[in-house]
Amino acid sequence: MAYALLAVRLLVGIVFAASATGKLRGAAAFRGFEESARSMGVPARLSRLVAVAVVVGECAAVVLLALGPGGAPGFVLTLLLLAAFTTGIVRSLRSGTKASCACFGASTAPIGRRHVVRNTVLLALAAFGLAAALAGTPAPTQAAGVLIAAFGALVGALLVIFTDELGTLFDDGAPRTSGRVRGSAP
Predict the structure, then answer these.
(1) For residue 10, with 0-12 CB atoms within 10 Å meaning exposed, 13-18 middle and 19 or more buried, which class applies?
(2) HEC letters along 33-52
(3) CB neighbours (10 Å) of residue 178?
(4) If you write DSSP's letter for every residue of 152-184 in order, what string do you get?
(5) What pTM was estimated for this model as a whole?
(6) What is the pLDDT of residues 71-110, one digit of tens each?
(7) Predicted local distance difference test score (pLDDT) of residue 177
(8) Were both Cys, which of 33, 65, 125, 150 would link to 13 (CB 3.0–4.6 Å)?
């Protein structure tokens, strides 16, 4: 359990650090995030405040995940942020808004179900991390285990960070249908 907690702390911390860094990479990246927030329903007069609050929250989550024996306060903050992000994405999808995902800086990739799935996975990991931290999970003791946990966290974080690129890689652009296609008898 100690190595799983370490891996989750690292994975979530890397993802939030990359997210904050992407938004702070430059003025264009930050404006892109503000625009994304507006297109997801945040009033224009509040978009800068919300964008700053999100970046501050992401930075605080990284610091809190690194501190203390289990990082429980960091997991609480990441759960709150992820719940807010996921709610915003779901609201935008239901309203048919064509918002882009500027989760890791400026992007033209439209938000979609893959972002909901990504955030749901992160929510589950953060919930696991919080439970393990509150259970008083001891610190890892073996260097090899720490290296394996760190490697797994890095791979997982990269998969999360490059969700849009991976989605594009596997998206053939064909319209999706649900259920059976009518008139196609076997």
Answers:
(1) buried
(2) HHHHHHHCCCCHHHHHHHHH
(3) 4
(4) HHHHHHHHHHTHHHHHHHH---PPP--SPPTT-
(5) 0.83
(6) 899 999 999 999 999 998 898 888 888 777 778 876 777 8
(7) 46
(8) 65
